[in-house]
Inverse folding.
């Protein structure tokens, strides 16, 4: 029974990793851009929510609603004016520029907010729990997992059911021909990064309310996000969710055996999946 | 009145390599013209220049008297100039129907062409509307590519090498659609290596060689030896 509970907690934890990863997966799927500053942008959004909560004395969920459009704008401008210039045949410039951006964000946050660990208070929700049959789960982990599913469903609807989604896929296939359809690739890319930043804001809300964070917490989030994307297979959002769940379950199982093994078990699971399925569990079409 | 589309001394280069050396061409409303020439004559460069995938000097290309030579492809498309690119270039991640729908992205206007009328024009692709575009045969893919361009209800339809890699019977099916496209109102430029096909369908023909127009006129006014000379270069020219 204890094992069942551990696995269940791992699945819920996977929701958080899927939220970390969904934005990364979206951006990579559309423009083949690996954003090494993704984790730092999550931490940056967490600080934004924290500031809103303490300045306006509002609920963190309301603060996230305010932060989301701000982060969309930051993502749009960042992509349109900086990252678009790095896209091309060579894969090195975007890696170098986003690596530099990661350092800039970390140091900017350090200057502004000091190195103290912070936490966003969610009030009584933090300790609330629900009993589901023999299992019991915290309300926050349940909300996190539900949000992850909602994000994946919403993004898939957008990508497969709307004109914007068709433009995303067309641009991903062939930038020059997309231009002939009246699609402006630079704006499409900027919109995609803006959307990824909305997902980042949701991830930041749960990161900040469930655990502490500080200006240097970004790269560790990035690693989990990467592993979830790669386990799931590049370009598949449901795969990313599955990747997050596998990572979460591996970590909680590892921690149940020996608390020191939590992080290690996640990385080992990642390497095992890569050994068996080098292209991930649900890779999109060959490319 | 200014012609629908006009190029004036159009020059185009790929880096240091100049591909067009002063091309003059006019297209009036309702007209269908053909551009013929051997490989490397500059026909595709001409199409890409007009469509905006290659940038040119602003006054090299005019649409209804407005300079469009320096406009990027999305702006040219929004003005009603649609290109069916060489090699079809369908989007493999999109179904047949999504490929058609994406053709309206930059220009959504009411006109003769919609999903219904495009499927009516090419019934064979209607049956396969939910297939991935690249699962279709070459001829069917070409029909989707033409339909995708028509979906924006263009004033000018540019068709680059429609016959490339297709069997003669398939080519005949595709050209059979053109009378209806003309009646619906689009002026058409086709690029064609098949001289006989071009002479049969076009009101006027431009023959290109090495980045220049070497001959132009109505098919009935051109004799075979003149076309031959303009297409391959005169024997005297080659010896010189």
């Amino acid at each position: 029974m204890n094992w069942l509970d551990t696995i269940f907690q791992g699945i819920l934890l996977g929701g958080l990793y899927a939220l970390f990863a969904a934005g990364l997966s979206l951006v990579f799927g559309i423009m083949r851009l690996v954003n090494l500053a993704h984790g730092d942008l999550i931490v940056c959004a967490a600080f934004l929510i924290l500031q809103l909560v303490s300045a306006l004395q509002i609920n963190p969920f309301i603060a996230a609603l305010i932060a989301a459009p701000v982060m969309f704008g930051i993502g749009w401008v960042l992509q349109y004016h900086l990252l678009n210039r790095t896209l091309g045949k060579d894969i090195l410039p975007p890696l170098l520029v986003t690596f530099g951006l990661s350092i800039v964000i970390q140091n900017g946050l350090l200057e502004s907010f000091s190195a103290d660990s912070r936490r966003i208070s969610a009030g009584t929700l933090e300790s609330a729990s629900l009993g589901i049959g023999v299992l019991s789960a915290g309300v926050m982990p349940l909300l996190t997992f539900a949000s992850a599913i909602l994000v994946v469903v919403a993004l898939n609807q957008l990508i497969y059911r709307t004109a914007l989604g068709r433009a995303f896929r067309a641009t991903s296939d062939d930038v020059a021909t997309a231009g002939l359809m009246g699609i402006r690739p630079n704006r499409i890319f900027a919109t995609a990064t803006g959307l990824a930043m909305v997902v980042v804001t949701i991830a930041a809300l749960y990161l900040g309310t469930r655990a502490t964070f500080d200006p240097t917490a970004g790269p560790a989030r990035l690693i989990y996000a990467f592993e979830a994307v790669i386990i799931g297979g590049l370009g598949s959002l449901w795969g990313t969710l599955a990747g997050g769940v596998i990572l979460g379950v591996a970590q909680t199982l590892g921690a149940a055996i020996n608390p020191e093994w939590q992080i290690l078990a996640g990385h080992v699971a990642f390497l095992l999946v890569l050994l068996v399925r080098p292209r991930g569990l649900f890779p999109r079409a060959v490319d | 009145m200014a012609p629908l589309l006009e190029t004036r001394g159009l020059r185009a280069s790929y880096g240091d390599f100049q591909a067009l050396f002063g091309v003059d061409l006019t297209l009036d409303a309702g007209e269908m013209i053909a551009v013929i020439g051997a490989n490397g004559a500059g026909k595709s460069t001409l199409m890409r220049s007009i469509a905006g995938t290659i940038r040119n000097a602003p006054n090299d290309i005019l649409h209804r008297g407005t300079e469009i030579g320096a406009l990027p492809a999305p702006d040219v498309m929004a003005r009603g100039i649609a290109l069916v690119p060489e090699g079809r270039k369908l989007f493999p991640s999109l179904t047949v129907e999504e490929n058609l729908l994406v053709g309206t992205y930059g220009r959504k206007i009411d006109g003769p062409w919609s999903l219904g009328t495009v499927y009516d024009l090419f019934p064979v692709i209607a049956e396969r509307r939910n297939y991935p575009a690249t699962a279709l045969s070459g001829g069917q893919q070409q029909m989707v590519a033409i339909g995708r361009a028509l979906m924006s209800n263009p004033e000018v339809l540019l068709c680059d090498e429609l016959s490339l890699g297709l069997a003669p019977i398939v080519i005949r099916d595709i050209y059979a659609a053109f009378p209806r496209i003309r009646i619906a109102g689009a002026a058409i430029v086709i690029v064609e290596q098949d001289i006989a096909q071009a002479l049969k369908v076009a009101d006027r023909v431009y023959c290109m060689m090495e980045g220049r127009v070497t001959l132009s006129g109505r098919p009935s006014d051109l004799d075979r030896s003149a076309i031959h000379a303009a297409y391959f270069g005169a024997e005297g020219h080659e010896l010189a």
Q: What stands out?
A: The radius of gyration of chain A is 19 Å. The mean pLDDT of chain A is 93. The CA atoms of residues 42 and 204 of chain A lie 5 Å apart. The longest strand of chain A covers residues 129-132.
